[in-house]
């Protein structure tokens, strides 16, 4: 039984305020969760409540969200059974009463939803991944490590937001992390040697002043090879252009490269990159408002490349159902704060899995030391996680948690590798 619910303002990895919630049960068990925050958000995400007072935190304060947790939400949650996560989450959604969670704030609801799950896990003396996923939860995800940052996550001219490496050929999760770290450090040396900055962006990847996706993919592919791995067979490449960010009035405007591409030209360009490089997965290849483009690209390359919807679905089960029905991609990115409760995020995963779609558990560009998503990746057995680079503790905290989970599972642990990615040549 939930005895108390509290919250406070803490800092996220960009130095912005965010909500951290604590849930205590009558038996003394405790759960704590800090809420992440995006920069390239989808238009249909649940609302992150910010105070908008320019005199404090440049308008980004979360005092109202914190007050909602300690006030209305605590009043509704205290006395509820923490084992009934679905019941608690339904009560939170009903209490908010809006379709987009704009009254109490998805940041207020999510902090309590996740903290309650952690308190319940602690009460049963279970790790979170087992409490949520049961005894079968033993699949460690393929990590998609973001080693070059652009777009809204860096101030360089790169139009595409993320260039990632995925160690599909590793034998274990721990080995995948080692491989990723080795490539990260090779890339650092290569960038330095070429006279580029090795400062990092919001997700810990390098943010060199490159102008085209090809330049970034060339650097990454060369770093994989120079480290001694085979691009494709050992390490696949993954991109998140975050295309909604540069789709304006029906045209993809590549400001850094200095070109404009129609939806067809943009899709042609992506198809070219997918064929020219060992790209195994592309997230948000097309903009959230370009569903025709999404369907065309899926029909063209969906048989040989995972196409993951982030902005287009916003972890919203209804939007996802519609996308599955109409052929918008073949995979969904899951960000718990896009929807605002654990139960709804798990529903999106279940819907994707029922349709034979793949699922990528994901961080936000604004993160904290909270590692809940690492456990959620194992709990759902989704087999893929994207949680940033091999630097910055907000990113490495999740990899470190997965290393611990793999160790705890011992010989029963399985590493997903590239098995869930659909490219025929893997
Ligand atoms: P965001 O970016 O957290 O800034 O939205 C991550 C992504 O687009 O996947
Ligand atoms: Zn994205």
From TrEMBL:
<dbReference type="GO" id="GO:0000015">
    <property type="term" value="C:phosphopyruvate hydratase complex"/>
</dbReference>
<dbReference type="InterPro" id="IPR020810">
    <property type="entry name" value="Enolase_C"/>
</dbReference>
<feature type="binding site">
    <location>
        <position position="364"/>
    </location>
    <ligand>
        <name>(2R)-2-phosphoglycerate</name>
    </ligand>
</feature>
<dbReference type="InterPro" id="IPR000941">
    <property type="entry name" value="Enolase"/>
</dbReference>
<feature type="binding site">
    <location>
        <position position="335"/>
    </location>
    <ligand>
        <name>(2R)-2-phosphoglycerate</name>
    </ligand>
</feature>
<feature type="binding site">
    <location>
        <position position="283"/>
    </location>
    <ligand>
        <name>substrate</name>
    </ligand>
</feature>
<dbReference type="GO" id="GO:0006096">
    <property type="term" value="P:glycolytic process"/>
</dbReference>
<dbReference type="InterPro" id="IPR029017">
    <property type="entry name" value="Enolase-like_N"/>
</dbReference>
<keyword id="KW-0460">Magnesium</keyword>
<dbReference type="InterPro" id="IPR020811">
    <property type="entry name" value="Enolase_N"/>
</dbReference>
<feature type="binding site">
    <location>
        <position position="365"/>
    </location>
    <ligand>
        <name>(2R)-2-phosphoglycerate</name>
    </ligand>
</feature>
<dbReference type="GO" id="GO:0009986">
    <property type="term" value="C:cell surface"/>
</dbReference>
<feature type="binding site">
    <location>
        <position position="161"/>
    </location>
    <ligand>
        <name>(2R)-2-phosphoglycerate</name>
    </ligand>
</feature>
<feature type="domain" description="Enolase C-terminal TIM barrel">
    <location>
        <begin position="137"/>
        <end position="423"/>
    </location>
</feature>
<protein>
    <recommendedName>
        <fullName>Enolase</fullName>
        <ecNumber>4.2.1.11</ecNumber>
    </recommendedName>
</protein>
<dbReference type="GO" id="GO:0000287">
    <property type="term" value="F:magnesium ion binding"/>
</dbReference>
<dbReference type="InterPro" id="IPR020809">
    <property type="entry name" value="Enolase_CS"/>
</dbReference>
<feature type="binding site">
    <location>
        <position position="310"/>
    </location>
    <ligand>
        <name>Mg(2+)</name>
    </ligand>
</feature>
<dbReference type="GO" id="GO:0004634">
    <property type="term" value="F:phosphopyruvate hydratase activity"/>
</dbReference>
<feature type="binding site">
    <location>
        <position position="283"/>
    </location>
    <ligand>
        <name>Mg(2+)</name>
    </ligand>
</feature>
<comment type="similarity">
    <text>Belongs to the enolase family.</text>
</comment>
<keyword id="KW-0456">Lyase</keyword>
<feature type="active site" description="Proton donor">
    <location>
        <position position="203"/>
    </location>
</feature>
<feature type="binding site">
    <location>
        <position position="386"/>
    </location>
    <ligand>
        <name>(2R)-2-phosphoglycerate</name>
    </ligand>
</feature>
<feature type="domain" description="Enolase N-terminal">
    <location>
        <begin position="2"/>
        <end position="132"/>
    </location>
</feature>
<keyword id="KW-0479">Metal-binding</keyword>
<feature type="binding site">
    <location>
        <position position="386"/>
    </location>
    <ligand>
        <name>substrate</name>
    </ligand>
</feature>
<feature type="binding site">
    <location>
        <begin position="362"/>
        <end position="365"/>
    </location>
    <ligand>
        <name>substrate</name>
    </ligand>
</feature>
<keyword id="KW-0963">Cytoplasm</keyword>
<comment type="function">
    <text>Catalyzes the reversible conversion of 2-phosphoglycerate (2-PG) into phosphoenolpyruvate (PEP). It is essential for the degradation of carbohydrates via glycolysis.</text>
</comment>
<dbReference type="GO" id="GO:0005576">
    <property type="term" value="C:extracellular region"/>
</dbReference>
<feature type="binding site">
    <location>
        <position position="153"/>
    </location>
    <ligand>
        <name>substrate</name>
    </ligand>
</feature>
<dbReference type="Pfam" id="PF03952">
    <property type="entry name" value="Enolase_N"/>
</dbReference>
<feature type="binding site">
    <location>
        <position position="310"/>
    </location>
    <ligand>
        <name>substrate</name>
    </ligand>
</feature>
<dbReference type="Pfam" id="PF00113">
    <property type="entry name" value="Enolase_C"/>
</dbReference>
<keyword id="KW-0324">Glycolysis</keyword>
<dbReference type="InterPro" id="IPR036849">
    <property type="entry name" value="Enolase-like_C_sf"/>
</dbReference>
<feature type="binding site">
    <location>
        <position position="162"/>
    </location>
    <ligand>
        <name>substrate</name>
    </ligand>
</feature>
<comment type="pathway">
    <text>Carbohydrate degradation; glycolysis; pyruvate from D-glyceraldehyde 3-phosphate: step 4/5.</text>
</comment>
<feature type="active site" description="Proton acceptor">
    <location>
        <position position="335"/>
    </location>
</feature>
<feature type="binding site">
    <location>
        <position position="240"/>
    </location>
    <ligand>
        <name>Mg(2+)</name>
    </ligand>
</feature>
<keyword id="KW-0964">Secreted</keyword>
């Amino acid at each position: 039984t939930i005895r108390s619910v509290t919250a406070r303002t803490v800092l996220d990895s960009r130095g912005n305020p965010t909500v951290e919630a604590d849930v205590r049960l009558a038996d003394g068990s405790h759960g704590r969760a800090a809420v992440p925050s995006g920069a390239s958000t989808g238009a249909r995400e649940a609302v992150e409540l910010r105070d908008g007072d320019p005199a404090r935190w440049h308008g980004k304060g979360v005092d109202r969200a914190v007050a909602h947790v300690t006030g209305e939400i605590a009043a509704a949650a205290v006395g509820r059974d923490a084992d009934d996560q679905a019941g608690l989450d339904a009560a939170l959604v009903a209490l908010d009463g809006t379709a987009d969670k704009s009254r109490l704030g998805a940041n207020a609801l999510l902090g309590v939803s996740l903290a309650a799950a952690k308190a319940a896990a602690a009460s049963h003396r279970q790790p979170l991944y087992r409490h949520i996923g049961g005894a079968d939860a033993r699949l460690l995800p393929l990590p998609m490590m973001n080693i070059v940052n652009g777009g809204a996550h860096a101030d360089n001219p790169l139009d595409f937001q993320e260039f990632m490496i995925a160690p599909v050929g590793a034998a274990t999760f721990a080995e995948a992390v080692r491989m990723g770290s080795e490539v990260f450090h090779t890339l650092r040396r290569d960038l330095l040697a070429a006279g580029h900055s090795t400062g990092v962006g919001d997700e810990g990847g390098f943010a060199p002043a490159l102008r085209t996706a090809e330049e970034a993919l060339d650097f990454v592919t060369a770093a994989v090879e120079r480290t001694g791995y085979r691009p494709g067979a050992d390490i696949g490449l993954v991109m998140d252009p975050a295309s909604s960010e540069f789709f304006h009035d029906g045209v993809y405007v590549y400001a850094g490269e200095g070109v404009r591409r129609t939806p067809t030209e943009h899709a042609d360009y992506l198809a070219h990159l997918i064929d020219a490089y060992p790209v195994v997965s592309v997230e948000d290849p097309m903009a959230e408002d370009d569903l025709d483009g999404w369907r065309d690209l899926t029909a063209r390359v969906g048989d040989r490349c995972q196409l993951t919807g982030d902005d287009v679905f916003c972890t919203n089960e209804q939007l996802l159902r519609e996308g599955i029905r109409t052929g918008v991609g073949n995979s969904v990115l899951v960000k718990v704060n896009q929807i605002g409760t654990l139960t709804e995020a798990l529903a999106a995963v279940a819907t994707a899995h029922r349709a034979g779609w793949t699922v990528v558990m994901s961080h936000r560009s604004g993160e904290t030391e909270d590692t809940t998503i690492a456990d959620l990746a194992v709990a759902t057995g989704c087999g893929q996680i994207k949680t940033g680079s091999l630097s910055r503790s907000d990113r490495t905290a999740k990899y470190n948690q997965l290393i611990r989970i793999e160790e705890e599972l011992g010989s029963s642990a399985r590493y997903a590798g590239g098995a869930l990615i659909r490219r025929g040549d893997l």
